[in-house]
């Protein structure tokens, strides 16, 4: 869905747009200070590299954890250039509050015990991913991001420049998403599909590239707390609506997610109850 009237300051959003473009335009020697360390997902680099043989996405990005604050890496968030760091602090706080409001409304719509949502997501993990898709001389032969569904509960996406590329899978076909002015694109991820016992389904999507201009986007992911256990909300499980997914610790969930190669919506299949099918 595209979220209008979200309450975010348009001037703040515009500053973040400009500052992200400036951040990717930093000289290479400045970027190396923020490069991914071996075995780490944060910093400049690529994600979901499961083998040396796989075909890589035509993109790279910058990833960092914003909340809870004690999870922030000392060489990343605190070292970002000013005023980008301060603006990103305000932006990420606003996006966290927005994500919690959306989740609260979803809980009400499902007539779920509100404590279920608060227990798992009240102090959830928020991570940020700034994506850069350079022009490609043969765009028909590559993808900026291969088809996948997000592992988080919610993804709130900000389009940085005016270049299209995001597509969602609907009725077996790929449909382009044209961002509305001043709107956030809100995407449901695997964690929310599991938590709502399949009521809200995660959305498979991909990113295409073109030969003329680069594309930039900024994704904010809101997820369950790291010391929690992910599974269907207890208040949604009844004799008529049995659990469709197994429970797993959030830490183990993310370990498996980041060590896998993205392939459509295949990631959460390992948590489905075998007698429920897909």
Report on the architecture of this protein.
The protein is of the alpha+beta class. The protein has one domain: Jelly Rolls (Sandwich), CATH 2.60.120.330. Helices cover 24% and strands 22% of the residues. The protein contains 6 helices and 13 strands. It has helices at 10-24, 28-31, 84-109, 114-121, 190-195, 250-258; strands at residues 2-3, 43-45, 60-67, 125-133, 145-148, 154-159, 166-170, 173-176, 184-188, 205-207, 215-223, 229-230, 248-249. The strands form 3 sheets. A 7-stranded antiparallel beta sheet has the order 1-9-6-11-4-3-2. The protein has a 4-stranded antiparallel beta sheet with strand order 5-10-7-8, with no helix packed on it. A two-stranded antiparallel ribbon has the order 12-13. The protein is globular, with a radius of gyration of 19 Å. It starts with a strand and ends in a 20-residue tail after the last helix.
Q: Approximately how much helix is present in the residues? A: 10-25%
N/C terminus separation? 24 Å
Global structural class: alpha+beta
Count structural domains. 1
Number of helices: 6
Task: Give descriptors for this structure.
278 residues; alpha+beta; Jelly Rolls; seven-stranded antiparallel sheet; four-stranded antiparallel sheet; 6 helices; 13 strands; 24% helix; 22% strand; metal ion binding
Task: Lay out the secondary structure.
Elements: E1 2-3, H1 10-24, H2 28-31, E2 43-45, E3 60-67, H3 84-109, H4 114-121, E4 125-133, E5 145-148, E6 154-159, E7 166-170, E8 173-176, E9 184-188, H5 190-195, E10 205-207, E11 215-223, E12 229-230, E13 248-249, H6 250-258
GO molecular function: metal ion binding; oxidoreductase activity
Protein name: Fe2OG dioxygenase domain-containing protein
Keywords: Iron, Metal-binding, Oxidoreductase
